Amino acid sequence: MIATDLFTVDTVLLRRFYVLFFIAVDTRIVHLAGITTNPTGPWTTQQARNLLMRLDRAVRFVIHDGGGQYTPSFDDALTAVGAEAITTPPIAPQANAFAERWVRSVRHELLDRTIIWNERQLRALLAEYVTHYNEHRPHRSLGQRPPAGDDVAGIGSAEPIQRHATCGGLINEYHTAA
Asked: Average pLDDT, stretch 113-124?
């Protein structure tokens, strides 16, 4: 099962960007689909096709809200690969809780603490954050493991620890030295 949603990011220069993402509900792996200033139905449909071609597993359900960018052609692209589109009821963010939680995480940990100037900067920051989220950030529901990473290594008292700053220095990742 995959959940999808859009969220907006406003720049200093008063441009609004829409970010489309997909999140696998079982593994919590996030796929950044695209960034645009105008999320039309054809654009959203193409982003869904691109994602479905990259996935290495079958998708049975895709949850999305009733926004105008999720056109019948979007649902048809999902049906073509055997997935069923599930539209959430209006004004019910709990119905798409996994997507809404990821939006809160990216806003709280990255976007609320960063001044965004343009699309290039936004694209680079989000790509770096998605890598951090998928490969390094521990998740309580996954037993403190990252979605696409290995088990969290135990830190012994005698082992030195190295810090690696990511996302423009906003987030620190810690590893034991090899």
From this structure: 94
